[in-house]
Amino acid sequence: MTTQKSIDVYVDLALDHLSDVTTALDAMCAPARSHPYTTVVSLIVLGAFPAIIISPLKLLALPFKALGKFVLYHLGFRPGGVERDSFASHYQSINYGGYIPANSPFAHLQSYGTEDDEEAGSWFASIVSWSSFAGAGYVLGRAWGWWN
């Protein structure tokens, strides 16, 4: 059973750490302090349209994904499934026969070979959106004096 005094100690400790976090954020975001509304509008636009950040990152990753798709394509993992008389089909017939176990390396390669890139990055878009909205709330809170 915890006493009120020990709970107060934990609350004070948490508030001290929160103060350290806000101090660090303020040090990194001096322009947000001097132009809070411009920063908030920018963060809201970024939160609503995370592709602003994600599209350039996808372009940076494109050569690596293309190389992986190229290798898988030539091994026999095609968009329509495993290609007949390919390395992948021979490997499948020798090691698995007609049954491919779920979560096996072969199943993952087969899935990646048929995967369309449209859904890739949706979890990252969610993180960018929520972080942007949280940042906008933080900047507005500082500008409106909700905390020091």
UniProtKB/TrEMBL annotation:
Keywords assigned by UniProt, alphabetized: Membrane, Transmembrane, Transmembrane helix
Organism domain of life: Eukaryota
Segments passing through the bilayer: 40-60
InterPro entries named in the record: IFI6/IFI27-like_sf
UniProt cross-references to Gene3D superfamilies, sorted A to Z: 6.10.110.10
Protein's UniProt name: Uncharacterized protein
